[in-house]
Amino acid sequence: MAANATVIGRTTRVRGRLSGDVDLKIEGFVEGEIAVTGNVTVDAHGMVGANVQGRRLTVRGAIRGDLVGAEAVVLEEGARVVGDVRAPRIAIAQGALMRGLVQTADDGAARAPAVRAQQVAKPAAATSRAAAAPPARAHAPANAAAPAKPPGAALPAPPSPHRGNSSGARRPPPPIVPALKKMKGQLLKKREH
Amino acid sequence: MASTVIGAGITIEGEIATDEDVVVAGTVRGKLSAKEAVTIEHGATVEADVTGGSLVVAGSLTGNVTAVERVDLQSGARVIGNVKAARVTIADGAQFKGNVDMDV
Question: Which chain B residues have a beta carbon less than 8 Å from that of A6?
Answer without folding.
Answer: 5-7, 10, 26
